[in-house]
Specification:
The chain has 224 residues and is mostly helical. The chain has a single domain, classed as Orthogonal Bundle (MetI-like fold). Helices cover 83% and strands 0% of the residues. It contains eight helices and no strands. The N and C termini lie far apart (57 Å). 31% of the residues are buried. The mean pLDDT is 92.
Length: 224
């Protein structure tokens, strides 16, 4: 490795890492939090079989699971201004990522809800709980424990998917690497470097996921 290339990589590392910490991570955290709110709401509507609302939930899931995330970003950021709706890049990215991820996570949560034995719901009714109380205290906690591994995988995937926000001018890690490459023109080295930083973030989240799974496993053992 030449001294010039080494100098470029050392100099670019904080310029890529800082947007990762100040943009990529907040973008992921905010979007995923909103996605989980959407996912739980959509899953409960389907599980409760609320006529009308269930069809709306299925339509929303069909749209956002059936179209590319990049297309959704372009529709919101570049397309909606034609209708007089303008958004800043970061809020637009949060909106699209939350809606997209919410559709996928809704199916994960729904499947987990349906995996809880029906007798649990009946048991709640037997002790005088309402449907909402039974869901909140008995069904949903069990379902979320089962859904934790796939939801964690979705979170890790979202960290990497945030690189698509560069296409709507959000200056996250990948966009920062592109800007640096435009001045030094070392695409191979710089894109490998940003890839390694994404790998670092994903690895940390994987460790957190495993720790969470062990804790949930111990909790379930204590219950038994």
């Amino acid at each position: 490795m030449s001294s010039r290339l080494l100098h470029i990589l050392v100099d670019s590392f904080p310029k890529i890492l800082i947007p990762g910490l100040t943009v990529t991570i907040p973008l992921t955290a905010i979007s995923f939090t909103l996605a989980m709110v959407i996912a739980i709401a959509m899953a409960l509507v389907q599980f409760a079989n609320v006529r009308g609302l269930k069809q709306l939930a299925r339509f929303y899931i069909w749209i956002f699971r059936g179209t590319p995330l990049l297309v959704q970003l372009f529709v919101v950021f570049y397309g909606l201004p034609d209708l007089g709706i303008r958004m800043e890049p970061f809020p637009a990215a949060v909106l699209v990522f939350a809606l997209n991820e919410g559709a996928y996570c809704a199916e994960t949560v729904r499947a987990a809800l349906e995996a809880v034995p029906e007798g649990q719901l009946e048991a709640g009714y037997c002790v005088g709980m309402t449907w909402g109380q039974t869901m909140g205290r008995i069904i949903l906690p069990q379902a979320m424990r089962m859904a934790f591994p796939p939801l964690s995988n979705s979170l890790i995937a979202m960290v990497k998917d945030t690189s698509l926000a560069a296409n709507i001018t959000v200056v996250e890690m990948f966009r920062a690497a592109e800007q640096i490459n435009a001045t030094v023109y070392e695409p191979l080295a710089l894109y490998i470097e940003v890839g390694l930083i994404y790998l670092l973030f994903s690895t940390v989240l994987t460790w957190v996921q495993r720790a969470g799974e062990r804790k949930l496993g111990a909790y379930e053992t204590q219950e038994v």
